[in-house]
Amino acid sequence: MGIGRVTQVMGPVIDVRFEHNEVPDINNALIIEVPKEDGTLNLTLEVALQLGDDVVRTIAMDSTDGVQRGMDVKDTGKDISVPVGDETLGRVFNVLGETIDLEEKIDDSVRRDPIHRQSPGFDELSTEVEILETGIKVVDLLAPYIKGGKVGLFGGAGVGKTVLIQELINNIAQEHGGISVFAGVGERTREGNDLYYEMSDSGVIKKTAMVFGQMNEPPGARMRVALSGLTMAEYFRDEQGQDVLLFIDNIFRFTQAGSEVSALLGRMPSAVGYQPTLATEMGQLQERITSTNKGSVTSIQA
Q1: Taken in order 116, 49, 77, 66, is the CA torsion positive or negative?
Q2: pTM of whole model > 0.85?
Q3: pLDDT tens across 234-244, in order?
Q4: CATH architecture assigned to 3-78
Q5: Which residues carry out catalysis?
Q6: What's the rounded Cα separation, in Å, for the pair 73 and 9?
Q7: Domain boundaries, the chain
């Protein structure tokens, strides 16, 4: 657990210098205590690059207002981790696994899993093909969803992708009693707010965990929030043997956030201005969404 010092702040990108033998690993979470009018804010950073000369370049998961050169930065020695298990159902979280629904905080004793994990090995994968009944007639007839598969909802702005997702969450929870995890990636804050209250009114929220990194968040948070939601879903699949539904709204904004982060880190863009690491980032997310011998994660991505 080394202590470093801020050497440069460029918007959401912060460079930190450590002692020679204390340079943190890639993806490690670092914490800065930023003084505010009403106390201090623990700002979480994630190590993205090791620049050499004992300096790491990090991406902030929240606003960097108030961060100055020379501030102390603590290396936690581990990845960002989020709470998992039944305690997450009915709650709303941010990318760091902190509750944002103005209710009681999650107890510190609740298990937390790191958001960066290996995808299941080939020997763990299930080969059975089973249809997931959604209860929406046109979907079940014309384009049925496969358990443990991935479904993309393509459409322009305002044509109803989010509405279809809301309908699916409602049907799965009420008809099958199944667990859903909703990851709001770079979407409108109003939509997340509406979704939460609609689900609370219908009682579906008790079977759903929600993770939000909306449009107003820095690109680092928008890029990682899908992994936070996926980590919660994986627990229900691997530890409880459940068939889980993972909704990601909007997967394009995950790509967009990755492109912003890549530009901020100074990487040369590839075709059409996208990040050169796009295939790797998307692959790391999608490879973890699969059916195993224990359970399945079925993903619907708008």
Answers
A1: negative
A2: yes
A3: 999 999 998 89
A4: Beta Barrel (2.40)
A5: 161, 187-188
A6: 13
A7: 3-78, 82-301
